[in-house]
Design goal:
136 residues, alpha/beta, Rossmann fold, 6-stranded parallel β-sheet, 42% helix, globular
Length: 136
């Protein structure tokens, strides 16, 4: 599932993911995903806040191997930290997870990643992601 949603639809996105069976969430908190992350506290799901995107992918991989549908949230500027565990663990061993990525691309420090993040995911063959458009 490749798609992009506006920032003001974050709780709706979370509800849709839970309705699709996602029950394990891990990620690196970010202001662009503030509503998504805070909303996790109100649902009966597993939620692990991580300090690094690779760590969040590792937590999600463990959840997947335990039989859960897992979701990792992150800001796109940190997405490259998730690439190694995605390409060396998840892809070779068929470990799937949804990536919810806060897509910042209008500020100068986020412009380059904002222009190439979808291409990077396409290059590695990862199609299970959703961009949440940031307002800043």
């Amino acid at each position: 599932m490749r798609k992009s949603i506006p920032s003001d639809k974050q709780e709706e996105l979370l509800i849709q993911l839970i309705d699709k069976g996602y029950s394990s969430f891990s990620g690196v908190p970010d202001s662009s995903l503030n509503v998504f992350v805070k909303s996790l506290d109100f649902y009966d799901v597993s939620h692990v806040r991580c300090t690094w995107e690779a760590e969040a992918v590792g937590v999600a991989a463990g959840a997947f191997l335990a039989g859960k549908k897992a979701c990792v949230y992150m800001q796109n500027s940190g997405m490259c930290f998730a690439l190694n565990p995605l390409t060396s663990l998840c892809i070779p061993y068929g470990i799937d997870m949804m990536l919810v990525i806060g897509h910042r691309h209008t500020l100068p420090q986020h412009k380059v990643m904002g222009e190439c993040d979808a291409a990077i995911l396409t290059t590695i063959g990862w199609s299970n992601y959703i961009f949440v458009e940031s307002r800043g």
